[in-house]
Design goal:
There is one protein chain. The protein is of the alpha+beta class. It has one domain (about 5-210). Helices cover about 30% and strands about 25% of the residues. It is built from eight helices and 13 strands. Strands 4-11-10-8-12 form a five-stranded mixed β-sheet, with helices on both faces. The longest helix is centred in the N-terminal third of the chain and has 16 residues, at about 5-20. The radius of gyration is 16 Å and the shape is globular.
């Protein structure tokens, strides 16, 4: 079940989203935006976490805002790590082509919780194709683009020079997989080939997702 850390962390993440003006990007007032996220706190109170507090590469939860509300090409630019702003080498319409893979079902509503997150340091230097199979066999789920950006929005320091991660939960029908890594110290959204391993990229996963808020 939740503890005081989880409740304080939830409030911190909501404040972060407001500070980064997610409501403005969504065309909403702060109050209208909070309607999408505040009820998620009740779901935290009911969950038994694998990771009670952040460890290296592991997090209890993050609040995810769907790209239907605020697009990924916008949110990556609101990521800031050590005063350096995130960016993407992908065009907005290309990012939009990447959809959740088969059998990956997202909660209803425009915001939800990603639970028991592993950024995949144990899968570095393993091809995305092979890592996806091991993630599924472990009864976990790969992260989507929106979810990966949510992780580094709330925990930007999880990105390290030799320890970043693929987002295997979003595909567009070709051999590319998206990933997040550092480029001259800046958080970067880009893509790699699904059959190629990289020593500095793992494959991020989660234990579950919960939501169910009004559209």
């Amino acid at each position: 079940m939740s503890n005081q850390y989880h409740l304080e962390e939830f409030n911190r993440q909501v404040a972060t989203l407001l500070e980064k003006e997610y409501h403005d990007m969504a065309g909403l007032s702060e109050e209208e935006f909070i309607i999408h996220v505040e009820p998620l706190k009740q779901l935290i109170e009911k969950h038994t976490f694998t990771y009670n507090e952040p460890e290296e590469g592991y997090f209890p939860f993050v609040i995810v805002i769907k790209s239907e509300l605020v697009t990924a090409d916008q949110t990556i630019q609101r990521v800031v790590r050590k005063k350096k702003q995130g960016f993407s080498v992908m065009e907005a319409d290309d990012i939009e082509k990447f959809k959740p893979i088969e059998n990956l079902v997202l909660p209803e509503g425009m915001a939800y919780l990603l639970l028991d997150i592993d950024t995949g340091k144990e899968t570095r230097n393993i091809t995305p194709n092979a890592a996806l199979q091991s993630i599924m066999e472990a009864n976990k789920s790969p992260l989507t683009i929106d979810e990966g950006i949510a992780v580094i929005t709330h925990f930007p320091d999880t990105m390290q020079k030799n320890n970043c991660f693929y987002l295997l939960g979003s595909r567009c029908g070709d051999k590319r997989v998206t990933a997040l890594w550092l480029s001259t110290g800046k958080p970067k959204l880009g893509w790699c080939w699904a059959g190629n391993p990289h020593t500095w990229l793992g494959s991020a996963s989660c234990g579950s997702r919960v939501g169910g808020l009004p559209e």
